[in-house]
Amino acid sequence: MAQQFTPTDLIQLPRPSVPVISPNGHYAVYAQSAYSIADTKTVRNLYLLSVHDNSVQELTKPAYDISDNEPFFLDDKHVAYFHHNTAEKVDQIYVLDLSKKDQAPYQLTKFPIAFGSLKYNVDHKLLAFSASVYGSLSMEETLKKDEELESTKKDTALAFDELMVRHWDTYVTEKKNTIFVIRLSIEDGKYKIEGEPINLLKGTGLESPTFPQGDAGDYDISADASQIAFVSKINTKDNAWQTSAHIYTISTDGKGSPVAVNKDIPASSSGPHYTSSGQLVYFQMMKPQYESDRNRIVIYNPETKERKVIAESWDRSPHEVTSSLDAATLYVTAEEQGRNKIFAIDIESETIEPLTQDKYATGLQVLPSGNIFCGVSSMKHPFIAHVLNVETKEIKALTIESGLAKKLESTEFADAEDVWFTGALNQQVHGWYLKPTNFEEGKKYPVAFLIHGGPQGAWNDNWSTRWNPQIFAGAGYGVVAINFHGSTGYGQNFTDSIANNWGSHPFFDLETGLDHVLEKYSYLDSERVAGLGGSYGGFMANWINGHSKKFKALVNHDGVFSTTQVYYTTDELYFAEHEFGGSPIQPENRHGFEKWSPANYVQNWKTPTLIIHGGNDFRLTTCESLSTFTALQRQGVPSRLIYFPDENHWVLKPANSLRWHKEVLEWIGKYTNDKAPSLHIQA
C-alpha cells in the first residue's frame, strides 16, 4: 500500500542533480545527495547512467566524511568532479577513468583557494573556472593576503563607502569573482594541468560570475576555445539601483581587453552561448531597473560585430539556450502556463515550435544524434534524465538510482490539476489544485492555500524541496496554488501588471481563485482555510490579514511588513523603485509605497499568524518579521515567531527544514486540521 508523503520523506529523499552527458552520448553522470535525520549528516556521491542500456550504477561510494559533486566529462571515458574531504581546506578536482574500474581516482588540481563554476571545452582541453581574488592578485597571492589579514587584524569591523553593503546573504568584500582558464594534457593515460591559471579579467574591474549567485551559466567557451563570452555588471556607485549587466568577449590567451557586445543598453543581459559556427547567443532585457523584463534572444556575430534580435514577437521569456549541431536551430526553455517547456527556434525563419508540453525541463544538452538530453522534474518526482527526439517530439525517461525509485514507487502523490478562472482585469488566471492523498468520499477537507514569492514567479509543475505542495496534500489538505497577475509564463503584460498594484490585482485573483476552487470541489471546507506564503507571499499573508476574513490561519515566511521600511533595508533598490514607482526619498513617490504597505492596516489584523525568518536574509531583513510579530502580539492576536539565525531568504539546511515543516503543519493544523501534526510530523 502506498504511503503518504511526509516532511521526513522530503528531507531524506535522495536529491539527484541534472545529469551531464558524455561527448559520444553513451553515458551520463550526476551527483546525488541524501540526508539522514538520525545521523544529521548528508552523503553526496556520483552515479553513472548508461544511456544505451538504460541502467545506472554507483560511480563513487557514499560516505559522511567525503563528498563528490559537479561531475563533467573530460572525454568519453574520463569523469572529472569536485571531491570534498573534511581533512582538506579546499575542494579539488579529481578524475575517474571509466575504462579502468580498479584504478582509484586521482587528483587533478591543487589550487590554494576555493574555486567553482566549472566549464570545459573537450576538443581543446580548456578548463575554465571562477575564483574570488583581490584585484589583480593571483590565487596564491590572495591566499597569502587572507592569511596576513587574519593574523594582523585586531578588530572585526567592515567599512563601506557605497552601496551595495550586502547582497542576498553575503556582505560585499574587496574580493571579486573572476574567470580563470588553464589547459589540460594527457600523459601516460592521465590528465594533468599545464602551466598556471590565467586570470582573464585581471585589471579590467569587471566581475564574473555575478556576485553572489552567479555560476557557470554566466559565461561560455567558444567552440574553438579561443574566446570566452561572459556577463558582468559595471562596478559603479549606482549598482544597487541599476540592473545594467552587459555581455563581453575576451581571448582565452589572456591577451587583449574585454570587448563589450551590448554596452549601449542599460538593462540586464544573461546566458551567453556559443554555437558551433561561432555565433554568440544571449538574452537581453530592455527596461532599466527591471529584473523581470522579457528576455529577448540576440544573435551576435563576433567577426562583423552585428547583432540581431530574433523571434521578437514571441511573448515568452526564455532563460536557457543551446543550439543544434549545425547551428541552424536554437533550443530554449521558457515558462508557459505552469510548465517549463523546450522550444525549437529556426534561426533563419524565426519560427518557434514547442517540443514538450508538460512538466519542467532543464539542463539541455545536444546529443551526437541531434536529439536533446535533459533533466525533467514534476510535482511527483525530482530530476530524471530524459532523451527528447526533436523530430517526433517523443520524450523518454531513463532509469534512476534504485533507492530513489523504490521510495517514489511506494509513495502516494496527488495529481496536479489545472485550474482556470476569470480574475482581475477580466482576464483568465491559472493555478493548480491537488486533492488530499488520504481522500475519502463524504468527508470534508481543509485547504492549504499557497502563495508564491517573486512576485514575478510562478507555481510550476516541478519538484521543490522547500514549498512542496505534496507535503500539504499528504497532510490531508486540498492544496490550491494560484498564479496571480504578476506571475511569469503567461505573457509579459500579465507579468508587468503587478507593478504599482501589489495589493490589488493579485489579491483579487487569490480571493477569486479560492472561491472558484471551493465551489468546484464541494468536499473542501471553506471554514478551514490556511494561507501560506514566502517573500511576496509573506507580504500577501500580511495584506490578507488586513483585508480578508476567509482564512483561519496564516503563515508568513520572510515577508513584508512595511514597503517603505523594506526600501531602506533591502539590498536591491532597483526592485522596489520599479515596483512602487521610484524612490521614497522623493516625497512625490511615497504614496506608491504607502498605498500597498501592510503596516497601514495592522489595526484590522485578527487572523492567527506564524512568522518565520532567516537571520541571513538581506533581501527582506528580520525587521519585517519582528515588526509583524510586534503588531500581532500588541493586539493579542495568536502568533508565533520562528527565527533561523543561520538561514537566508530560504530555509536550506535539512534539520532546519524539518523544523520549518513541523512548525508550519502544527500551526495550520491547530486552526484547520488538528490531526495533521500527530499524523505527519515524524522527526
UniProtKB/TrEMBL annotation:
Gene3D superfamilies: alpha/beta hydrolase (3.40.50.1820), TolB, C-terminal domain (2.120.10.30)
A single GO BP: proteolysis
GO MF entries: serine-type endopeptidase activity
Keyword terms, alphabetized: Hydrolase, Protease, Signal
Occurrences of domain Peptidase S9 prolyl oligopeptidase catalytic (ranges): 463-673
Keyword Signal: yes
Domain of life of the native organism: Eukaryota
Entry annotated with the keyword Transferase: no
Matching InterPro entries: 6-blade_b-propeller_TolB-like, AB_hydrolase_fold, Peptidase_S9_cat
Stated family: Belongs to the peptidase S9C family.
Protein name (database record): Dipeptidyl-peptidase V
Organism: Thamnidium elegans
